[in-house]
Give the backbone structure.
Amino acid sequence: MKYSLSAKNLVCRNLENRAGYNADLLNPKQSKEITGLLRTDSGLLSARFNQVVSNAVAQPRILQRFVVDYFAERHSPFSLWHCASRPLDDDALAELGVISKDPMIAMAAEVKQLVADNKPLEGLEIRAVANAEDLQAYGELIAKMQEDARESGQIKKYYQQLSQLPEHKHSRHKFYLGLFQGKPAATGSLFSSADALGFYDLGTLPEYRGRGIGTAMLQHLLGEVLHSHHKHAVALVGEEQQDLWLNAGFYAVGEVGCYDFKPERSGVLKRQQRDDEAPEDPAGKGLDDDRKSA
């Protein structure tokens, strides 16, 4: 399939804007950028909120110095989203403890071409998060959907802290709760960047799946987007979910590589310790050009 580069850029810019925005809400001015790489740091030990977005193929040594060593020193996980068309060197990244996962499909659409079916689902109420209690409930749901217990705890902490901020501080992000028979069951959110609305956090608790709740949440968000001022909408979805989005009026515009890093993986901290114990090079002759630029 031939992808539209400009449309994929819409997806990646929204992802990049959201990553920096989410991290800066709790840990202001800690996001850093070099050519083709954005590193965000939420101050938490969370791969969900410590995100790295790459728009170019960085050399492994650059990634090690600017990203891996930074988070390893903080004993913190992170996630890496690779938006460039050329792939990264998965083997070289694996040696750094950065492990490849299944890629996501970038989806984009003109809002005027979207179709929403707002047929109500019996027993389901979808409402916008409007207060601190709802925001904490939203975070609890996201946390319950995680397989990693530490990540789950950090997600709860993020939303607890976010709920203490004035609402206007996170106004670019709209959160939605799905309650099935009065109990929180599903989540979804919209993030507004300058040129698109992005769909995120679409998920349903395992015990409520298979009832059409996730589809109903998507349809509700589509309705919200249709009543917005935005001209474009974007999303990142699993390959098996494409049909649902295609039927709504989206089209596939490329792939985004996904990676994660956990500092306790074998070799990462040991290598760092070896580097710390290595004799100093007073003249700086041991530094190569990549290390200097990072």
